[in-house]
Amino acid sequence: MSTEWNVIVYDKPGTDRTAVRPAHVAAIPAAVNSGVVKSVGAIYQDQSKTKFAGSAFHLMADSREDIIEFLKKDIYAKEGIWDLDSVVAHPIGVACRLGKAMPGVNL
Length: 107
Hints:
The chain is α+β, with helices and mostly antiparallel strands. It is 24% helix and 28% strand. It has a single domain (3-91), classed as 2-Layer Sandwich (Alpha-Beta Plaits). It starts with a strand and ends in a 16-residue tail after the last strand.
């Protein structure tokens, strides 16, 4: 049985995700609708949300290795944006979850 994980992956210093962000965002609904991703979003360096720091997920996976394999398939990993050596992953027990709509995602 899969475990839900709180996952953070940081961007490599000096990288710019802007050019490939549309492809990354376009892949989110399929990952959510498949049940692998429970929540996902950018993390920022600043409170005004003008500088990306990386990404945060709640993922369903059997192991840390499965998490890394999932992340490797994303365009941010393929294009060298994410620093896969920076991944922080911990099993999480969610006490409450509120839905946020996104086009293409089945809540």
